[in-house]
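[SOLVED] Need 3D model of a two-part complex

Original post:
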Amino acid sequence: MVPSGKRALDTEMSDRPYRRMAVDVGGTFTDVCVLDERTGALTVSKVPSTPDTISGVLAGAREAGVSLAETSLFIHGTTLATNALITRKHPRAGMVTTRGFRDILEIRRGTRDDLWDSYKEIAPPHIRRRDRLVVGERIDAAGEVVEPLDEDDARAVAAVFRKRGIENIAVCFVNSFVNPANEQRMKEILAEELPDARVSTSSDVLPEIFEHERFSTTVANAILAPVVGPYCEQLSRELREGGYGGEMLLMHSGGGVMTPRAATRFAARLAASGIAAGAIATRELARLCGYENAIGLDVGGTSTDVSLVYEGETHTAEEWYVEYGYPIRFPSIEVLTVGAGGGSLAWIDDAGSLRNGPQSAGSQPGPACYQRGGTEPTNSDANLLLGRLGSELIGGAMALDEGLAEEAIRRHIAEPLEMPVLEAARAIVEVANANMADAVRLVTIRRGYDPRDFALVVFGGAGPLHGGAVARDLGIPTVLVPLNPGVTSALGCLMVDVRHDVSQMHFAQVAEAELGEIEAAFAALEEEARELLTLDGVPAADMHFQRQIDMRYVGQWRSLSVAVEPGLGSLAEAEQRFHEKHGQEHNYRRDDAPVEIYRLGITAVGVTPRPEIARHQAAPSRPEPIGTRAVVWDDAGAVETPLYWRPELAAGAVIEGPAVIHQLDSTVLVEPGMEAEVDPWLNLRLTI
Amino acid sequence: MTTNSNTYTLDPVTFEVLKNSFTTIVDQMSEQVIRSCHSFVIWSRDFSCALCDAEGNTIMQGSGDCAAHVGTLHFTAKAVLDYFGEDIHEGDVFVVNDPYLGGTHFNDTRVVRPIFQDGEMIALAQANGHWADVGGALPGSFNIEAHDHMAEGLRIPPVRVWSEGDFQRDVAELIAHNTRTPGDVIGDMLAQAEATRVAEREIGRLTVKYGRETVVTAFAEVQDYVERLARARLAALPDGTWETVDYLDVDPVLGEGLIPIEVKMTIAGDTLHYDLSGSHPQAVHTFHNATFGGTFSGVVVGTKFQMPELPLNSGFYRPITVDYGREGSVVNATWPTPVAGFCVGPFDKLLNAIGELWAQIVPERAMACCFALEYLLVGGRDGRREGSPYFMWYDWMMGGWGARNGHDGHNGSAPPFGVQLGTQPLEGQERLAPVLTTGHELITDSGGPGTSRGGLGCIKGAKIGAAERAVMSYCCDRERSITWGLWGGLPSAPIGVRLRRAGGDQEEFLGALFSNVALEPGDVLERPSNGGGGLGDPLDRDPEQVLEDVVDEYVSVERARRDYGVVVIEIDRDLCACEIDVEATERERRRIRAERAGWLDTDPEAVAARYRAGELDEMDLVRQYGVILDWGSGEVLAKSTGQFREMLRRRALAYWADAGT
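Solution:
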């Protein structure tokens, strides 16, 4: 990483804890990545996730062989919140809303994500109708109190919650983003009547326009608070007891970390914790290697996550969801997930066309070659049959059966299509590669980015099997394969800053906007953000604030964010940048059309000293293969291909394709015509 | 049947890759439209995108498109080709909204770009969006009193707006300035044109990589592929003919009486024929008419709901034939008949009627009648702002979907017209228009009773604020031809706008279709949307499910007893404590079973008298007695009642186990 310089580690600090540990808990595995801050050495380990998450986290830490007392910083990525939303295992929660609007949460925006399948269910709201209670109150669009809070109603609602034993409450009033007075009064009354209740008000959680989006985010927050809060408390306690002297940091959807205190208050920010880490790793690895623009391709067993880094920044989505219809409107690193992974099934549809995914063999039964009873062919089976994947995984811990793979492909693909079985295997892999390339097109080309200007960072267990071919298809010149592709997300957790996003609606046409008002609003937001960072223990010198104005053409419904500096002399430059950005993202601009301001936002960052991954002296070398294997690459048929063992490859090693590089958690393909070089940080760089 | 792969000339990999690429391309077009459009109607997903081949046939349609545009984009592409013939050049872009050429209604404006390769046109890209206003007599271009299309909006036959890359500003502005929102129209035109350029660029990329011949072959084979899938599905079904009828509420000139839309469906081998010739033979004297475009869309959408997993292109249309009946009919309207309400009229009836026919063949996908698209428009001057600028409060509602086999219907969701056509945030509306939303909730009891309950409809109220010269129009249907149940399930409830004047306490019922009602500050209006119809005999619904519905107030205690014969005792509402009185429930269900067939023969006038006396409510009338009133005056509508009762006998009574006993 780029050394921050601010806190260069010197010898005086050598007796202090010096290991930075990231533990990323996924559905199947818990990945651990430890960085020795003195040497820059990375160590990784992987343990199965456990139903009791905390013991899994601690087991992962133990497996890494690092004592908590040596740990300077413990960073945690977790799917805890995501799972609670999906499985609905959370304490019963209640909602108080404006009379007449009890069902905003259930009506949603009314849309459904499947155009034609009327049998596909809509996810029910997380708070049932019976627990959504109403009070008299109303604020209008200008913030005027049309109807003050009916305090008798408010106390009656509190009494009902008390009787039901509901202690987690979302307060969601119409137009509270303009004037939070009624919501705040409701909160006070709940505090008086139910002193132990956890209350999330929509004006605190997300003071933004659009009732459903605000309510939905607030409800997610209200139901996750009692899940996240106790979890953080217990894990922090156990870490402390284990000797960890610092404060645990949790990865949030926005690609930063936050303290348990902030996580409890903004629990819904954890809901995409797991996915963000891969995008961060992409950004940091690309930066390390000198690439400003990078695409992250994380290929797992059932799906592929694609993320984008442009000019050193990840792309942020304003709105996303865990279950369709219930948006969480905290900024979140944008990741496109498609159903194409190592375990995706190849199949032939009713009209005789070869398909790939989105159904997957999952971990049970898994691909046919796993010998766990799977009989349908997957991408892994095809890769095995082609010799691209070796007959064992995880350093021999798992044997793959080529015969079962062949049988599956023969029966389900080759015979119906009347083609030789090897050709069928190639067809399967080619379709999978094309699907992944299409996913990359969706996050690049449709946003006006040319993939040829990007490096492709491939990871996840199956990423390095497909990355080269995807890059070739898209015209991407360079592929970067990190040292430990299977635990790259955990590595991402090591590389983040404390980050908060605060915002405020601000409606004004640029031509009529009052600069003084905008400056004052920014100052107030910055104060709020500074307070959050201070609570997180970030020293003032490490605080950074980036201001953004969201703008759009008058009449438009979506806005674009434009970064601005404090002390604006005029809005002309920001407006100009808006036109340019519109031109880039949407292919046209309207310089004569009026532009309006929609929202002001601040991203507050508490810079965490960047760890520095060990840099090795690169000495050009041609390493010796550990053996050869017959591999099918193209029409030429099977070619004896040299095999390499990645842990043996030193910086500067150059391998010409075709070659297969094995490592504990992945297999890297260097296809014919490509060349791989080990860089000073031990990443493999493939030149396509 | 030939379903083996040998009929393709492309190898399976190239075919699959190109097929998926075409899907990615139309989805990229959609992304471009939604991110940069100006019309909030388009932003709310009333748009669609397609890639068409050089003959105008659709190669691929977007996966999130508005359903009501489906089955019409190829007509538009062909209209452009017919009109301009050889006079089509690289860089040209055409605009067309003509329903008489197979479009839907004037608001749906299509932007079409020919895609050239080596000087030869190989495809057309099309982005179609519902512009919020296309002129005509009334804001929003919905004029129920229009006698001809001139009073509805600007008719745009195929017009060249970019000529070999040059923007024809004069032509564009001629169009824009015949609408009430010229700035938005130009913005939308640009956004749609750029979407078609995305397709041009991507097709260019594919031809470089795979060669023109291969890509053009794939255009054809992707259509063949879908045709093959559709024919295979049809061939696996029994041959036969099935028929049913659904109704529009009324033709006001003809007087009361439901207007039939008849559908006779024949499956023979791998073909599917819809005969609509039994439908009402004239256009109705409202705008609830459809040209062949809107009608074909209803037919395709109704059929597509039965085959949700198939991609959509012209291959899907090939096994389908339609007899539209005589020219000038309600389902085959001709110039200059008004058709703006096609979607609430024939389109909606066709898709529901077709659903009923398919329920007999594929019962595992059965669904009772869904609520219809509706929209209310209040336009005027915004007195809150300097200079009182023009405002439009253009609002459509979510509603209930029909109950399904083994599953309740969806509550408060976007209509089958377009499942992405979501509700607008009231906080946005209140900033833009001086109209305060007084409530937006699900309506207890609005789901049609059945073994599976219909989804709940919604109610929305609005209070007029500092508006000047405000008028209101409303477009819906199913005030009388109420969303019906299936297989013994019962209907939802009537709809229509109710208005309470400022300072007054009398409520005025305005019905489901009216325009130009003047409004004053302080006036309050309220309207419900239909719930979905129920499926199966409501007396067979598990009492525990009814109890849960009562706890959540989806169903009231009172209607649990009347509709389901389930007697629920409230113990403590604060604790959600309710329980079933098992004995009383058995008694009540026995009583209803014994009496209900007779209710349909009760003298309508006697029923209406009890309604006026407050003994019965609208739901009793519709669900038990099948009596349709003028919901404002309380007068019996004899002809409509007769038709509605006949419908109930056919769809409900015939399925009750006690029928005929």
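Edit: The longest strand of chain A covers residues 498-509.
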